[in-house]
Amino acid sequence: MNDHDAVDIGKHVRTYMIVFGSLMILTIVTVGVYYLELSVPVAIGLALFIATVKATLVACYFMHLISEKKMIYWVLLLTVAFFIALILLPLLTIGDVPGS
């Protein structure tokens, strides 16, 4: 192992430690939000936003998706689009309830 490899590994470890620290801070923020007197929709929205940021950090750095090709992002985007469509599908069928 030469000096260049050691510097490169050190850079990656530093990045992982920064991401880990960010995740810990966001976890503390999530716990802090719990103690705020917020309405339920605002609290859920804020919690989902923080969870999305944390999931993005994990996926990008620990799962190494930040350096993936664009095709991966299109597949992920398509998955999110289908997920949203499936979540919203019951809202479109509310008026079509038999017997009402």
Write the layout of secondary structure elements.
Blueprint: H1 3-34, H2 40-62, H3 70-92
Helix pairs in contact: 1-2
Describe the structure.
The chain is 78% helix and 0% strand. It has helices spanning 3-34, 40-62, 70-92. The chain is flat and about 70 Å long. The chain has one domain. With 100 residues, it is mainly α. The chain has three helices and no strands.
Short description:
The protein has 100 residues and is mostly helical.
- Average pLDDT, rounded to a whole number, is 85
Quick one: how many beta strands?
0
- Straight-line distance between termini: 73 Å
User: Would you list the SSEs in sequence order as H and E?
Assistant: HHH
Estimate what percentage of residues fall within beta strands: under 5%
Report the total helices.
Answer: 3
